[in-house]
């Protein structure tokens, strides 16, 4: 038999109150890194139905949205409920130099991976240096003082 703990009971009620007051979209933890000529974004979405995950591009704005629903039968009395349900949302402003037409995404084992390629124009390139007879003549004009 467990002893009654009024502080734990008060904490549970406060958490329940504040969690139900927070009805807006929830954040999802994510990592973002560059690997060669593309960026990779990974976001944790455990327990999310893959059919509820949306990745949208609007101009330079990347939006990730997912929905988690927790099912419970009629007459269920929750003892504890720490897994959140609802809408998860993340928006990122993409900078210039990214190929938004070739963004791809996959969802495996509760992790969403979004690959964002760098555009050809933004990739570093080597500039060839002309030498000898092939080099254009450089003209210097004298300024008058």
From TrEMBL:
- Xref: InterPro entries: A-crystallin/Hsp20_dom, HSP20-like_chaperone, Small_HSP
Q: Which Gene3D superfamilies match?
A: 2.60.40.790
Q: What is this protein called?
A: Hsp20/alpha crystallin family protein
Q: Which organism is it from?
A: Microbacterium binotii
Which residues does the UniProt record annotate as the domain SHSP?
A: 21-132
Q: What is the lineage of its organism?
A: Bacteria, Bacillati, Actinomycetota, Actinomycetes, Micrococcales
- Region labeled Disordered — which residues? 123-145
State a single Pfam family of this protein: HSP20
**Which domain of life does the protein's organism represent?**
Bacteria
């Amino acid at each position: 038999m467990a002893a009654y703990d009024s502080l734990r009971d008060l904490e549970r009620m406060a958490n329940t109150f504040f969690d139900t007051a927070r009805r807006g979209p929830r954040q999802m933890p994510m990592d973002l890194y560059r690997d060669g000529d593309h960026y990779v974004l990974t976001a944790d979405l455990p327990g999310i139905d893959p059919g509820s995950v949306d990745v949208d591009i609007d101009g330079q704005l990347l939006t990730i949205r997912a929905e988690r629903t927790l099912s419970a039968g009629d007459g269920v009395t929750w003892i504890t409920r720490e897994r959140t349900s609802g809408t998860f949302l993340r928006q990122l402003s993409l900078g210039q130099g990214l190929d938004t037409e070739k963004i791809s995404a996959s969802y495996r084992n509760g992790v969403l991976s979004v690959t964002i390629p760098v555009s050809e124009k933004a990739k570093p390139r080597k500039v060839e240096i002309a030498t000898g007879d092939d080099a254009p003549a450089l003209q210097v004009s004298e300024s008058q003082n």
